[in-house]
Amino acid sequence: MSSIPIPFPLGERAWWTGNGHREEWVTCPECAGTRAVTMILGNGEQYSLHCDNCRAGYEPSAGVVKRTFYEHAPQQITLNRVSVDGNKIRYSQESPDATCYGVIYAEHLFARQEECQAACDRLNEQRNKEERDRAWQILLQNRQKMAWSVHYWRDRAARLRRELATVEARLAVVKQKKGEAYAHRDP
Ligand SMILES: [Zn+2]
Prior knowledge:
This protein has a domain at 21-70 and 112-185. The strands form 4 sheets. Strands 6-1-10 form a 3-stranded antiparallel β-sheet. Strands 7-8-9 form a 3-stranded antiparallel β-sheet, with no helix packed on it. A two-stranded antiparallel sheet has the order 2-5. The longest helix is centred in the C-terminal third of the chain and has 73 residues, at 113-185. It is α+β, with helices and mostly antiparallel strands. The model has no long low-confidence stretch (mean pLDDT 90). A hairpin with a 2-residue loop joins strand 7 and strand 8 (88-92). The chain has 1 helix and 10 strands; from the N terminus they run ββββββββββα. It binds zinc ion. The site of zinc ion has 9 residues, from loops. Residues 28, 30-31, 35, 51, 53-54, 61, 63 line the site of zinc ion.
């Protein structure tokens, strides 16, 4: 039977990268806070739309979107509890008999503050980049949705106009026929 070495003994102080993140409302990058977007089609036709990027469901566009910013910073803690799950070693600050406890993975713990600071810098860079990429992907999806909606409603309007023209033409024929009928009755 093999044993997994535990990097920190219980009761020891260690540096943790922390939970540092905050959510903030920022100006919508798509409509610049104006809540409206102008779409210009290839033929020069322009449409003004409610911005879909800063709108949740059927709510009106808000002009702002929620963003998460990661700000991990070294935090000194005491390790009071440890558990091994597969090859993952998890610590906690809470005592072993606590029923509710936070989990800290060993890879986020360091003996020295400078090592922890370097890990925080890496985490902040990586997670903030992921967050920016995610926001950009959402913006592109919403842009596609808006373009789709312009084409959909534009096609639908064109179809209804054609249908209306057909209906009016039929009515004109009916009127004319009626007119002819009266003409026959009243020579
Ligand atoms: Zn917007």
